[in-house]
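tool_call predict_complex ligand=nicotinamide-adenine-dinucleotide
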Amino acid sequence: MANILVTGAAGFIGSHVADALLKRGDTVIAVDNFNDYYDKKRKEKNVAHNLKKNKYKLYRSDVMNMGAMHHIFMHNKIDAVIHLAARAGVRYSLEQPVHYMVDNVVGTTTLLDLCSKFNVKKFLLGSSSSVYGNNKKVPFAEDHRVDQPISPYAASKQSIEKIAYTFHHIHNMHIACLRFFTVYGPRGRPDMAPYMFTEKILQGKPITRFGDGSTARDYTFVKDIVDGIVKCLDADFKYEIINLGNNTPVKLNDFIATIEKVTGKKAKIAEKPIPQGDVNITYADISKAQKVFNYQPTTSLEEGMKSFLEWYKLEVGRKKK
Ligand SMILES: NC(=O)c1ccc[n+]([C@@H]2O[C@H](COP(=O)([O-])OP(=O)(O)OC[C@H]3O[C@@H](n4cnc5c(N)ncnc54)[C@H](O)[C@@H]3O)[C@@H](O)[C@H]2O)c1
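tool_result ok
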């Protein structure tokens, strides 16, 4: 049982990570600034069920705020950090590149600096498949070139992987940069296709399909991602970059057909050109994660979307009627 600092703990992935750690007996020191990228009430709901637990402590702080974060490190014994706080979302990063650089790059560096000062040796960093850009070679493996990011978001994630290496090199910190591939599931982000499409299809409104539907994503169910994160926390590593995906890319048209199947409703489609910053395909080679910590995603897209739909109907859909 350990004390784990989880940043971005009120967000989609972070709140599930906190739940999984508490379930196995760890103590969670949760940090989130509850930014307004999407409805803050959703984030409040994501943390509400844990607030009274002895082993859960929530700080409403910004990871860039050195003073506030220093206080947290001073007053808690921290064994490891799982850093998920970030400006997420590729498209919005084209509009607000500075926010992305500041939150993602300065925020991560602040945390790494504090870890080095407080001798916290283990650091898991939430990175992204977007660092692969429009690489032609698939599936994407960790040793492929990633020097042509096509969005500010991707550039920010690539930068923090490098900064993390520097801290590993200087301070002998053990760092795993986990590249997540299109995560979906209960508590999912409202700016992502699984949420947006399901909501619109249920409401009988048209969905915007970018391109002809042939782009593909390696949709990965949040439970599988969290399982990978927790297994990584228990693994031994020095500095590693590791893909966490599903190893099964799904074309956009097939993804829409899956939502039609689970909702029992036909989608109305409005087609638009593919926006700048969007990549054509994501497809994870997961053999490294399998080797290093026995990662094995088990949830099919249909199963995962059924689980998402159940959550959506209970938590969101009912209130929107
Ligand atoms: N969801 C995906 O498909 C996906 C894919 C690849 C990578 N990621 C990465 O995984 C991590 C979690 O993503 P998510 O989908 O759960 O997003 P999310 O937006 O739901 O969660 C991020 C949380 O971080 C918080 N946050 C942002 N900036 C902060 C700051 N400066 N200080 C403190 N808190 C801050 C936000 O309020 C939010 O609650 C992010 O690093 C994201 O880039 C996500």
